[in-house]
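Structure in, sequence out. Go:
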């Protein structure tokens, strides 16, 4: 997904999905894309007005072990998510969703993160942390994204070391959000 409409834009959010049969169908791709659209749609009141999340017209299939692109598959077009949050906001401040898996890689549990940045001022409380509404609402949207496994399962991908084929992926088992703001120092964070 491509975020636009703020200083420092564009920003990008990537999601990975697993297919146990290794041959996803167009219906599975469409269902996964719709789940992602629903996830971002649940955040639109916290995303500042003027910030837009654009959805790709294709989903890419990668080899988990090597990271090599194996194909692009056109999906049904999705309507952009447009933020409706009002008031002042910082283009570098938002929240971070932590994705947990049960896979252990090199002695550490494989985890992923998704930054929801920027967020509008109504996302925060008077102490500078996340508002209860934002925290609970975002966590509910994250859990719904995990739970909707009738198509492709949400996953975290561990990229292979350069020159190897040791890439791994694991299904996301949990989501958590700390009650504090996340600040991106660059769009590469």
């Amino acid at each position: 997904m491509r975020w636009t409409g703020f200083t420092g834009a564009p920003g990008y959010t990537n999601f990975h999905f697993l297919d146990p049969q290794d041959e996803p169908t167009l219906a599975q791709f469409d269902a996964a894309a719709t789940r992602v659209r629903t996830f971002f749609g649940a955040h639109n009141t916290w995303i500042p007005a003027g910030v837009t999340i654009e959805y790709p017209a294709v989903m890419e299939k990668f080899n988990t072990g090597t990271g090599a692109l194996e194909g692009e598959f056109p999906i049904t077009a999705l309507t952009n998510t447009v933020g409706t949050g009002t008031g002042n906001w910082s283009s570098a401040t938002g929240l971070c969703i932590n994705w947990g898996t049960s896979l252990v890689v090199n002695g550490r549990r494989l985890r992923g993160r998704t930054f929801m940045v920027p967020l509008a001022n109504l996302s925060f409380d008077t102490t500078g942390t996340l508002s209860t509404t934002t925290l609970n609402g975002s966590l509910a949207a994250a859990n719904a994204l995990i739970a909707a496994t009738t198509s492709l399962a949400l996953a975290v991908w561990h990229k292979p070391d350069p020159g190897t084929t040791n890439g791994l992926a694991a299904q996301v088992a949990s989501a958590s959000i700390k009650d504090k703001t996340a600040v991106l120092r660059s769009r590469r964070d």
